[in-house]
Specification:
Layout: H1 13-31, H2 36-39, H3 50-69, H4 83-86, H5 91-104, H6 107-122, E1 130-131, E2 138-139, H7 140-161, H8 171-188, E3 194-198, E4 202-206, E5 220-223, H9 225-232, H10 238-243, E6 247-250
Parallel strand pairs: 3-5
Antiparallel strand pairs: 1-2, 3-4, 5-6
Helix pairs in contact: 1-3, 1-6, 1-7, 1-8, 3-5, 3-6, 3-7, 7-8, 8-9
Length: about 260
Amino acid sequence: MSAAKKRARSYDSAKIRAAVLAQFGQVRDAVLTLTPEQLGAPTRLGDWTVRELAAHFTMAVGAVARGLEMPEPARHELPLLEWPSGTATESGAIADGTRELAASAQPSELFARTTARLDEALAEAPDTRLIPTRFGAMTLADFLVTRTVELVVHTDDLNDALPGLDVPYDRQALAACTRLLADALAAKAPGASTEVRIPPFAVVQCVEGPRHTRGTPPNVVETDPLTWIRLATGRVGWHAALDDAKVSASGERADLSKLLPLMG
């Protein structure tokens, strides 16, 4: 079954909206404490410094307001489960835009401007409102779920770049990010021979093969949410995670190395 045809998980819209605002606020509060030296620190994202990473947060979340300010598209084009696999196609343009944005203003100005625009844009917008994105028109509700992925993944990048900063993860944002990426795996490798467990947020079945019906599944993968997110986005490799005991995998169909990462 294709990602487009697979029935997407439902999300509580009010909780997702609150999660996006909460996680963005936690990042903003942390970024505003950074010194010029910290803003100039390298990240694991190629040649981006923390300053570019900070700007990218405002670009990713600001896309909600920008989309709502534009004319509504005529038709729905992008199902939620297709979003993760499509992100790599625009990575170059996103990187260029991020660098330009970072050079245009101080982080404090970017975060203040984005917060104000987002609050205003979301005040009256219904979940069903279609908004244009780089990858096709999506409902506002779905696009906000993708923002939890952007926020959680890059919060982890920020914490990696500045040990000790320890920006917290909003629980609902972490849960939505984990679930969307788990469902994307199930859509990419449909089947029921392997069970992937990411407690406490997600369990999915995937990979073609004999269907499990009773007892302990013959093929099981289990990991924690942040390790799963790092695997799904290429921050950590499958074999490195196994070697570090961050992932347990049992059964001949439990090797997910050829399916990961899900996002570029």
